[in-house]
Amino acid sequence: MAERIQQRLEDRVPELEQLERVGLFTRKEIRAVLRKASALEYKIQRRALRKEDFINYIQYEINLLELIKKRRARTGYSFKKEEIEHSILHRVHSVFNRATGKWKDDVQLWLSHVAFCKQWNAKHQLSKVFSTMLAIHSNKPALWIMAAKWEMETRLSSESARHLFLRALRFHPECPKLYQEYFRMELMHAEKQRKEKQEFEQAKMDLGEFNYSEEILNGEMARIVYREASQKIKGVEFQLAVLSIAKLFDFTQDLQKEILESLQARYADDPLTWDYMARRELELGSLQPSEYLTKQKKVSEMAQREERCCAVFDEAVRAVPTENMWKCYITFCLERYNRKTNSKDLKQKRLERTLSVFSKAHESSLLSEALYKQWLQLLLDSSLSEKAVEVAEAATRCFSQSVETWQMRLRVLIQLKRDDVTQCFEEAIKHVKSKGTLPLWTLWVEWSEGTNSKEDTEALYQRSLHATTPAESVTMKEMYLDWTYRNCGYKKVKRLFTSLCENRPFSLDFFRKMIQIEKEQESCKMLYLREYYERALREFGSTNTDLWLDYIKEELSHPQGKPENCGSIHWRAMKMLQGDLVEDFVSKYTLLQTGHL
Fold it and tell me: Taking the mean position of all CA atoms in its chain, how far away is CA 309?
């Protein structure tokens, strides 16, 4: 191994001598490079190879290349690149090849090699990398697309890109993304040929026997790709994706027409088809250029376009009366309403149209829960509070088991300060199953705290403890404890804590809250703190190291504390804590003893 490493270091000597001779590096820097290179070489030549060592080696060589590049820019010296940079590049490629040969499944390593080749314009080497990578990772369509794009856009080789796409489709005959990018490539090729032909014609050059094929110039290859894909890939999403690509090229009107006809014939009942057809009306503007239109005419024309869109949507909801179809219609209306405009009339018209569509969807019983929420928000933003109350009530009738819908209705009533809030809470608790009602109870007690008397709020807290599931009651206990301390004082909260401790489960925050309350008292008693810590440790002593450490800190720092108890607390912690927590506790306890915690 040593002989091989020595040979590799000697291979570096010519480039390092050149670096010193031309003044890019000093003798001292050359020695430092050799020392570092020697260390890196030993790591990648040993028997037990590690990927990180190869990555570090490559990164060092790349940093060296970047440094040479900066030194050249600073000194203005641009010669001897063949002897210096090319030698380093060759070495980096060699190390990359070893690494990717050893860890073939690491796609990120392959992509790093690809990125390096692109950065240093190593086209020949990159072609080899893509070839090897695709032979190993032929199951990844994204890599085929990357290779084909590079062939098309960098090497300007449409034939190579086409060959790669055809090979990829043998492995992935039903991959929509592959067909989309192949379709795009054929259109780019046609556009490139059209531009070439136009330039030749403008230059009046004689092309001899060479002729451009009219079929290729008109995108016939892309049409073939589309037809082949349409037979294998079902779904309106693919058709719309291909259509959006075709619209980027100005010579594809016939192709767009074919795709559109296929879309309407095969997916007439799909909401996305209708959504596209309706939105298409926005693009069909007037024949007169927009710069010659006054502001009033622009507003008028936009209103007409939106009316045409809505006419198509109206036809759509009659033809395809589904929840998704109404969702598309409402989404369009909300998008138009949220667009900025200086015209108050247009804004008002958009609002009226949106509210009308919401109402029609509701009457058809095809409005989803999420859309009810959007409808309510729109009504509240528009100061239509009475209508908002009606809609909220209708939503809870449709989704009576949904906690979110009841929350939505209750927040509307609370925001509007209605008298029937309590009645609505009662109704919500009755309809919703006990599991999952925690958000309703927290909302109810928070509202009661600011509205009702202390007695009513306390009765509500007591009721919530019995009504919620044991796991959810934990949160209610924390809230109850906090509210009692804020409103009824220390003595009452102490009695409440003792009472709540009779029924499990508890949370750690429940005990920490009581400990904090005790600490806030003028005559904070260590006796009570010990009691709270001991209760907490009975529940969480086996899973929480910080609780033990806080207990020890309290004994050390409290005026009434007993430092001699720390030893027994430490011994109990070592017995109770589970698994790796013991080691964690020991390290933290050591830091505490040395004053670093």
Answer: 32
Q: Are 366 and 326 spatial neighbours (Cβ–Cβ below 8 Å)?
A: yes
**DSSP structure string for 272-323:** HHHHHHHHHHHH---SS-GGGS-HHHHHHHHHHHHHHHHHHHHHHHHHS-SH
Nearest-angstrom CA–CA distance, 213 and 190: 10
Cite the DSSP H helix spans in 320-402.
323-338, 344-363, 369-381, 385-398
User: 242 and 183 in contact (C-beta within 8 Å)?
Assistant: yes
**The token pair that represents 546 in the structure block:** 């910080």
Q: Any residues with CB less than 8 A from the CB of 84 and at least 6 apart, and which?
A: 15, 18, 19, 24, 68
Q: Where are the domains of the chain?
A: 1-103, 531-596
Contact 320, 274 (CB under 8 A): yes
Measured CA to CA in angstroms, residue 228 lies from 107, 179, 183, 231, 251 at distances of 30, 9, 11, 6, 21
Question: Averaged in consecutive runs of 10 residues, what is the pLDDT profile of the chain (597 residues)?
Answer: 80 87 90 92 90 95 94 87 88 95 95 95 93 95 96 92 96 95 96 87 70 83 94 94 95 93 93 94 65 77 92 95 96 94 91 96 94 94 93 94 94 91 93 85 94 93 91 94 94 94 92 95 92 95 94 92 92 92 92 82
Answer whether 0.90 is exceeded by the pTM. Answer: no
Task: Give me the residue label for tokens 């590096």.
Answer: 25
Cα 554 off chain centre by: 44
